[in-house]
């Protein structure tokens, strides 16, 4: 597995020009796979102006099953996690692991629910990604993707670099053919009685391109 991806199994206290990933090497836990940096962020499906931290990089658990999604999708939803926010990558990774554990162990999902999560460090974290259906927006999961800002944005906005990251991710999704060119953007509360994605963030995204004041219909 490590070799197939051009990596090297070695003790993880040794320098690695890329980053270490777990569970790819035999032996004890400190013997890990050093993957070269080019496989770190810009795997196919992403764009050079969006920093996407892959599942391997944040140490995601494996999904118990995967539901495919047919693309391009017509809708994109914005959420907030309403939980702890994070300003540093290590903090964001801890938060992500907590969210994934909660979604799998407490809610019974196959995986973390969101397609992507956005940290206040300006990074996009890969959740279910572009290739599988999420569990984020009831009745719309099979024809939309969703990004969730980590934190509670009722009374304040995410930092600018996080807002920029979300918009760049959506544009990238369109450019790569995962999202329709004439997609509609919504906040979670547009389709459900919820405070998500928070008053401040919701008011803000209503000025984004493709925000649609007409709620989506269900077929
Ligand atoms: Zn939501």
From TrEMBL:
SMART domains: Ami_2, PGRP. CDD domains: PGRP. Residues 62-198 form the N-acetylmuramoyl-L-alanine amidase domain. Gene3D superfamilies: Peptidoglycan recognition protein-like (3.40.80.10). InterPro entries: Amidase/PGRP_sf, Amidase_domain, PGRP, PGRP_domain_met/bac. Residues 50-192 form the Peptidoglycan recognition protein family domain. It comes from the Eukaryota. Signal peptide: none annotated. Pfam families: Amidase_2. PANTHER family: PEPTIDOGLYCAN RECOGNITION PROTEIN, PEPTIDOGLYCAN-RECOGNITION PROTEIN LC-RELATED. Belongs to the N-acetylmuramoyl-L-alanine amidase 2 family. This is Peptidoglycan-recognition protein.
């Amino acid at each position: 597995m490590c070799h197939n991806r051009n990596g090297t199994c070695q003790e993880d206290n040794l320098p690695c020009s890329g980053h270490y990933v777990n569970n790819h090497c035999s032996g004890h836990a400190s013997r890990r796979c050093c993957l070269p940096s080019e496989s770190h962020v810009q795997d196919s499906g992403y764009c050079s102006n969006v920093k996407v931290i892959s599942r391997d990089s944040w140490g995601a658990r494996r999904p118990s099953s995967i539901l495919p999604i047919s693309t391009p999708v017509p809708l994109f939803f914005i959420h907030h996690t309403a939980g702890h926010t994070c300003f540093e990558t290590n903090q964001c990774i801890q938060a992500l692991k907590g969210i994934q554990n909660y979604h799998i162990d407490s809610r019974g999902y196959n995986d973390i629910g969101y397609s992507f999560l956005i940290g206040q460090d300006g990074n996009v974290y890969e959740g279910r990604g572009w290739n599988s259906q999420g569990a984020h927006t009831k009745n719309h999961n099979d024809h939309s993707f969703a990004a969730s800002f980590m934190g509670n944005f009722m009374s304040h906005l995410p930092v600018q670099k996080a807002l920029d990251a979300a918009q760049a991710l959506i544009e990238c999704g369109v450019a790569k053919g995962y999202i329709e060119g004439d997609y509609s953007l919504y906040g979670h509360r547009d389709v459900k009685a919820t405070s998500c994605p928070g008053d401040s963030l919701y008011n803000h995204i209503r000025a984004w391109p493709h925000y649609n004041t007409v709620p989506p219909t269900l077929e």
